[in-house]
Amino acid sequence: MAFSFGKLFEGMKGTEGSVVGIDIGTSSIKVVQLRASRGVAVLETYGEIALGPYAQVAIGKTVKIPPEKIAEALVDLIKEANVTAHQASVSIPFSSSLLTIVDLPKVDAESLKRIVPIEARKYIPVPVSDVVLDWFVVPEATEEASAFDVVDDSKKAKKPKGQEVLLVAIHNDILRAYQTVSANSGLTVDFYEIEVFSAIRATIDHGIAPLLMVDLGASTSKMYIVERGIVRLTHIVTAGGQHMTETLANTMSWEFEKAERVKRERGLIDSTAYSRTENDDIKTALLSTLTRIFSEVNRVLLSYGERSNKNVARVILTGGGASLPGLVDVARTSLSAEVVIANPFTHTEAPAFLDDVLKQIGPGFAVSVGLALRKLKHS
Ligand SMILES: Nc1ncnc2c1ncn2[C@@H]1O[C@H](COP(=O)(O)OP(=O)(O)OP(=O)(O)O)[C@@H](O)[C@H]1O
Ligand SMILES: [Mg+2]
């Protein structure tokens, strides 16, 4: 039901100065506990617990459960992973939030306070009183162009004089639900952060060239174009790991549980456990979902490239789905950009014997690592 390596770190941990990042996904909760030591982020423990069993469904399935049930799973995970930190940071699902860049007239901060909530009505599909609103003025681009930039001065000159503002809205419902989760699990939440910002912190090093981050989750695949550290464009596809397992289960006439296990263990790699036809059938089933997702990825690459006149040269894959064995080769042949599988644990210090396992599970922990890193930087 859960895996954790908390015991490995026993005796090395304290509660002072330790922070825990919590990513509540639709299929599982992920936690990462870090501590700052001599300027590095020391990995103290981490763990994951599937939510399926809390809704009487299989591991790997996505669930819709009340906050009290989420808290129950979180308490179990904290125990199993031996999390000792009391200060937590929690991610807000991208699906419960809205991120968009809006062009506004160049006015001072005080006037923005008045203008933004009025402007926000055009973009937010629910009453503004139902959301928490925040914004951030996008710094103007400097002249330093990266190797990938294709600067088109004729377009630049025509741009109206104004300012770009990144508008961020979080639905009140999710904040209320998470307050119940934290109250029921005995954790103090220092801050909530939309998952995209956490994942960026944990996986993207400084650089100005635009890149595309793809979070292959269980229920959805999320795409974020990030340029100069700023989210310029987002896109969500309602296909993810669960769909992949379902297709495999249907194709092979297997139970969901078996399909989930086979997907994680061998993925797109041939196995001697199956005949040649079976191997081919497994690959074809898994690829049918992937092909759909990757064609959307290429569409986003192309449309942002055209819109901004820049080449998006790199794709970073995160989320549990990015751990699919054999994925990188398929991604490299299908996507029109360089492909990298995220390993957020490179930002943390851990015993060397864990390197392989952390690399393997890394993509799924991008959000939780990013949350913990932010908390460490602030304390
Ligand atoms: N080794 C693996 N190979 C292939 N798929 C995997 C592997 N490990 C996990 N997954 C898949 O990744 C998905 C879970 O990823 P993740 O934990 O990022 O999702 P989530 O955060 O719960 O979902 P969402 O972000 O959509 O709410 C599941 O569909 C699971 O089957
Ligand atoms: Mg997720």
Summary?
This protein has a domain at 97-170: Dna Ligase, domain 1 (2-Layer Sandwich). It is 37% helix and 26% strand. It has helices spanning 67-80, 109-120, 153-158, 172-185, 195-203, 241-252, 256-266, 276-308, 327-334, 355-361, 366-378, and strands at residues 2-4, 18-24, 28-37, 40-50, 87-92, 97-104, 131-137, 163-171, 188-194, 211-216, 221-227, 230-237, 314-318, 338-341.
Structure in words:
This protein is of the alpha/beta class and 379 residues long. The protein has a domain at 97-170: 2-Layer Sandwich (Dna Ligase, domain 1), CATH 3.30.1490. The protein has 11 helices and 14 strands. The protein has helices at 67-80, 109-120, 153-158, 172-185, 195-203, 241-252, 256-266, 276-308, 327-334, 355-361, 366-378, and strands spanning 2-4, 18-24, 28-37, 40-50, 87-92, 97-104, 131-137, 163-171, 188-194, 211-216, 221-227, 230-237, 314-318, 338-341. It has a 6-stranded mixed sheet. The chain has a 5-stranded mixed sheet with strand order 12-11-10-13-14, with helices on both faces. Helix 5 crosses helix 11 (366-378). The longest helix is centred in the C-terminal third of the chain and has 33 residues, at 276-308. Mean pLDDT is 91; it is low at 1-12 and 143-157. It binds adenosine-5'-triphosphate and magnesium ion. Adenosine-5'-triphosphate (ATP) binds next to helix 6 and helix 7.
